[in-house]
Amino acid sequence: MHQLLRQIPAIHELQQDQRFVQLLETSHVSKAKLTEWLQEAVAHVRKELLAGECSDENDPSRISNTIFQRLIERLSYHSTYKLRRVINGTGTVLHTNLGRARLSDRAIKQVMETAYSYSNLEYNLSEGKRGSRHELIEELVKEMTGAEAAMVVNNNAAAVYLVLKAFANGKNVIVSRGELVEIGGSFRVSSIMEESGAELIEVGTTNKTHFYDYENALTEDTAMIMKVHTSNFKIIGFTKEVSIAELQPLAQRHNVLLYEDLGSGALYDLRKDGIGDEPTVSEALKKGADLVTFSGDKLLGGPQAGIIAGKKKWIDRLKKHQLARVLRVDKMTLAALEATLKEYANEETVRETIPTLKAVLLTKEEIQSRIETFLHDLSPSWHRKIKHDVSQVGGGTMPEVTLDTSLLLLSNSNYTAQSLHNQLRQKEPAVVTRIIDDQIALDFRTIEEHEFADLHRCLKEFE
Questions:
Q1: Is residue 100 in some structural domain?
Q2: Which residues span the domain enclosing 122?
Q3: In 10 A of CB 414, how many CB atoms?
Q4: Where, per the database record, does this protein carry N6-(pyridoxal phosphate)lysine (predicted)?
C-alpha cells in the first residue's frame, strides 16, 4: 500500500507542472487558493487509491492526469455562477422559482449606473446634508397611488410584519377567517401576526364574513381591522365579504387602524383589458384604507420590495420604528424601483415598457407570430407542432385567470422528452420547459426574441 501511495506526486512537483502554471494564469484565483484545491484533489485521489477505486494505480502519469482532472472540475465549479440566467419556456409570467418579474430596460440601466458609482442614497444634494433613503421614491409612489406618504422595505411579508409590529403589538387585530392566507413557502399571515406580537381575532367563516362580525368583535383592545386580498386563491359560490369602503366608517368611529394587504400590488388596471379582477392600489386607498401594503416584483413589474402607502401620520411612525432600518432596501433595489415607477407616468407606453405587463397582455396571435419567427432557423431534424393552450400569471397572482396562448411542441427521435427536458436545464443559459404528450413544450409568452439565438444554440446540440 505504501508503494502505491508513493506513486502520487508531491505537491511541489505538481505546482511545477505546466498544467498548474497554465491554470494559475487563466483561473483568476491566487496561487494559495489553487494550491489548496490541488491538495484537495490529491487527497481525493489518495482516498480512491486506498479504496481500490482508482484504475490508474499502476501508472504515475495517469494518476497525475486524474489529479489535474479533479482540480479542473473544482475550478469549473468555482467559476460557474450559482445564480444563473434562465430562458423561461413555461409561460408562467411571474414564476416565483425563476425570479418573478423581469426588469424594464430603464430599470436595468438605472441599477447599473447606481452600482457603478457613488450615489446620493442618504445624502440631500440640494441641502448638502444627510438625507433619507425613504424620500427617494416616496413622491413617485404618492403620485401613482394617491397616497399621502409611502416607504419601502425588503418584501411584502416584511411590510405586513412592520405594520403589525408597530401598531398592534400586544393588541387585537380583526381578520376574516376567509382571508388567513398562506403566501408561499409555508409562510402564513396568521404566523406573521403571531411573530409580530399582535393577537389575531378571527371573524366570520371561510366563505362568509358579514359587517356585524367585525362590529361585534371590536373591543377596547382592538388596534386594527385588517383586510387581506386573497390574490393567490379564489373562493366561489356561496360567499360574502365586507369591503374596505364598508369598513371605513366603522374603523373611523372606533378610532382603529384600517389596513389592507393587497399582495400583488397592481398600479395598471388589467380589468380594462378583460384580465382578472385585481384591484389597484389607488382604488384601495380611495375606498378608505389607512394603510396598504403590496409587492414590488409582482404585477408592479419591478424588483423584490414591500411598499407601504397610506396616511402620512401612520407612515411617519413606521419610518421612525427601529425595524425600519432592519428591513430597509439597498441602493440597487431603490434604483430599479424608482425607474419602474417612472414607467407608469405614461399609461399608453407602460404596457410595452414593463416586461410583466407586456407578457400578460400578449395575444395568442402575437405569440404565434413569435413561434413562426423562431421556426425559420430551427433545423428540420426537430419534429414540431403548434398547440393551443393557456398560460398563467403566476407568483400567487390572479389564480383564476388563464391567458390564451400557443405552445411549440418539439421532439427529437434521438432523445426522450424527459431527457431533453433535463438536459436543457443544464445548458448555458438554462432552458426550463414543460412536457406535454411526450414532447417538450415551449410557451413563447415568456420567451423574448432576443433569446431566440441562445435557444437555437441550445437545441442545436441535440441535432
A1: no
A2: 105-349
A3: 10
A4: 298
